[in-house]
Amino acid sequence: MSDQSAPLQHPYTAEYEQMLDKVRYEGAYPTRERAEEAVRQALAGLGRQLTGDERVDLAARLPLEAARILTAQIPDTQPLRGWAFVKDLAARTGASLATTRWDTGSVFCAVAAYAGPELLTRILQQLPSGYALLFGRAELAPAA
Known about the structure:
The chain is mainly α. Helices cover 62% and strands 0% of the residues. It contains six helices and no strands. The protein has helices at residues 14-27, 32-47, 52-61, 64-71, 82-93, 97-126.
């Protein structure tokens, strides 16, 4: 018989712990819990935007816990441009635009490292304009 009063504990994989540490460092968050909150919000938002092979390939490269957050979301039928994405996240979380932009950039920097340059390029090609800066890349205008 199990003890029903004992809280369930779900230890994270070492890879996810490393991701949280990277986000905590990049975002200068005071606690790992604050970094994890940023990870959950930003990845959920990205999961509502990203579709197709890029979504599958990114999920395969992320730590299991992060992949679950990403893939638990149903993609929106109308993708948001980068700044609209930040505004949508801010509205959903109740955070300021500046804080949301900071959180998103901190998380997406770690995501970019997991994705690698080739997959990140594919992701940015799929998403509407405005996401490159969130991932720490320059937004290049298409050639005329």
